[in-house]
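Q: Structure tokens for this one, please.
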Amino acid sequence: MAALLAYVDRVRAEYDGWLTGGGPSSIPARLNTHYGNQPADVVLERYVWHMAQHARQLDHLAGASGIPSALYDGLPLPDGLWT
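A: Here is the predicted structure, written as tokens:
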């Protein structure tokens, strides 16, 4: 638990530094990825939906987590949890 909390603190500090150092305006228009040079907004959107899919999978595995399934409505996620 201590290692996880230390990691979260480091991520928060990095995020705070990014916000104070230019924030969104410091993101280049295009990013090099493992699938080629892509528009930054497309890359960021793809990563958000990818993480949302994994969050949905974890929510499913956790069972009665209290999070309503409507939380994911409207997101471009696969119909199946494991596809």
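A few notes: DSSP finds two helices and two strands in the chain. The chain has one domain: 2-72.
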